Amino acid sequence: MKWIVIATLGLITLCGCAPSGPSPDQIRQQTAKATAAAARDTKAVAQGLVEGLKTKGPLNINRATKEQLETLPGIDGIAADRIIAGRPYQNSEELPRRHIISRAEYHKIATKIEAR
User: Fold this and answer.
1) Are 112 and 61 in contact (CB under 8 A)?
2) Which of the following CATH numbers is that of domain 59-114: 2.70.170.10, 1.10.150.320, 3.10.20.30, 3.10.290.10?
3) Rounded to 10 degrees, what is the CA torsion of 80, 86, 89, 91?
4) Cα atoms in the Cβ-side hemisphere of radius 13 Å centred on 36
5) How many CA atoms lie within 13 A of 74 on its CB side?
């Protein structure tokens, strides 16, 4: 009898300490969150591709809007305003030569711009 009580308490202890897996509701919630995140990421990638396809070739610094200029690496609103104020340009190399932007900034965007 004593052994039955000890064995029963041992089994109860082992069952109580055993880790339980996530419930079906928790699994559904985690799956829904992962699916929503994947859908959001896919939408962002698709939007980026569409915008990339719309931009054909280098950005024309003589006609680009401030918002378009700000998409260039290292170009903020102030630099975009300076580029717009210095128009027209014969070629893009005038930007550092006329001190519109620094030589380092120009090297970051040189392949992404042109002056037409």
Assistant:
1) no
2) 1.10.150.320
3) -60
4) 6
5) 11
**pLDDT tens, N- to C-terminus, the chain (116 residues):** 777 878 777 777 666 655 667 889 999 999 999 888 888 888 877 777 677 666 678 999 999 999 999 999 999 999 999 999 999 999 999 999 999 999 999 999 999 999 98
Locate the domains of the chain by residue range. 59-114
Q: Hey, what are 72's tokens?
A: 């260039």
**DSSP conformation class of 23:** P
